């Protein structure tokens, strides 16, 4: 498995959805040949606002447009697709928006397990907007069982009323061909750094007026952490911070989150029999801490290459570092273009966490080695 969480999520996002099966809920008569036929016939991809951000974060437009439609994502991602205002091909539809019916086409839904999304998909089923629906949830929890059979939508974290609405609907059962789980409910920023992009997490956890929201929020965080563990194939030992002399009631949050994560992991491993996969590495350790362990760090200015870049270069979308460069300088088609510094820049990846003093020294050494190995670049 790749050591980069960026690559792991990208592989999950662009791999052929039928091969992402975690639990196959298709009828017993369902045959792999029918699955292959469906792959070749896919025309519509339906996402929601949240899952679209996950897909946008994992893959570029070129990744989408250059996919081999016979073995990867459906033909909505073929090079002939046109792009809409949101940057995705026009045949990629957002479930919250008005859409034209396509009753002769099958649809792949990549959706977040949220109550209002269930309302939207039920509206699609009632209108028979598409021929068949293949559901891919971005995250999951251990499913309930009914007479030895897995319940379709219990794989996702749904409101009980909405879950029952799907489970008991004959219209939904007639149109749902399969249920799959992506386990990619997180946003990688670096090869070993992820965030959940939840700006409300801090006030929910620490504001006295939000005490009634804490349990549900911690459960949601636990499910996202388990989604990450599932992607990494890790069933970690959990350790958490507990201060000896707590000064605030929030000091119990680490222990509560640890308990929720442990419960979610145990339930996930119970129904996902091949989790965790065999690995030569020792069992990982998940450390759960809070800012009270190190109160001073946010007040200090770092002296790493990365911190200098953040000081001097523009930051877009919260974490994208860009710079301007001149393409075809001196020619008639000269242009100034914005370039992004990302994981594909080996110099950036190697130096970003180093102290600037060390960067300057090593950068000079590496440049000297490059010039020695490539004399054609030497100055005249």
From TrEMBL:
One of its GO terms (biological process) is vesicle-mediated transport. It comes from the Eukaryota. PANTHER family: VESICLE PROTEIN SORTING-ASSOCIATED (PTHR11679). Belongs to the STXBP/unc-18/SEC1 family. This is Sec1 family superfamily. It comes from Aspergillus kawachii (White koji mold).
């Amino acid at each position: 498995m790749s050591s980069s969480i960026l690559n792991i999520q990208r592989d999950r996002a662009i791999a052929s959805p039928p091969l992402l099966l975690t639990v196959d809920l298709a009828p017993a008569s369902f045959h792999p040949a029918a699955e292959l036929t469906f792959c070749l016939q896919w025309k519509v991809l339906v996402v929601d606002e949240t899952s679209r951000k996950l897909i946008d974060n994992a893959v570029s437009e070129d990744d989408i447009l250059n996919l081999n439609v016979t073995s990867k994502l459906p033909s909505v991602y073929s090079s002939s697709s046109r792009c809409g205002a949101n940057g995705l091909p026009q045949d990629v539809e957002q479930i919250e928006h008005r859409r034209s019916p396509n009753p002769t086409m099958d649809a792949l839904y990549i959706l977040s397990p949220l109550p209002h999304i269930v309302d939207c998909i039920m509206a699609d089923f009632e209108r028979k907007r598409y021929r068949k629906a293949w559901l891919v949830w971005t995250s999951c929890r251990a499913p309930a069982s009914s007479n030895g059979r897995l319940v379709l939508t219990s794989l996702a974290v749904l409101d009980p009323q909405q879950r029952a609405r799907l489970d008991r609907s004959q219209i939904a059962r007639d149109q749902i061909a399969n249920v799959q789980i992506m386990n990619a409910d997180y946003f990688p920023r670096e090869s070993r750094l992820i965030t959940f992009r939840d700006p409300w997490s801090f006030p929910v956890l620490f504001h006295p007026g939000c005490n009634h929201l804490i349990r549900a929020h911690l459960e949601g965080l636990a499910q996202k952490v388990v989604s990450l563990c599932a992607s990494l194939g890790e069933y970690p030992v959990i350790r958490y911070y507990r201060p000896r002399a707590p000064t605030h009631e929030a000091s119990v949050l680490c222990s509560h989150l640890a308990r929720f994560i442990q419960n979610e992991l145990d339930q996930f491993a119970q129904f996902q029999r091949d989790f965790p996969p065999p690995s030569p590495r020792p069992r990982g350790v998940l450390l759960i801490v809070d800012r009270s362990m190190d109160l001073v760090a946010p007040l200090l200015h770092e002296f790493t290459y990365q911190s200098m870049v953040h000081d001097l270069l523009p930051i877009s979308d919260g974490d994208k570092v860009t710079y301007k460069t001149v393409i075809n300088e001196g020619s008639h088609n000269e242009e100034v273009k914005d370039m992004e510094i990302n994981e594909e820049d080996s110099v950036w990846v190697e130096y970003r966490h180093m102290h600037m003093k060390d960067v300057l020294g090593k950068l000079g050494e590496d440049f000297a080695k490059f010039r020695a190995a490539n004399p054609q670049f030497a100055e005249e």
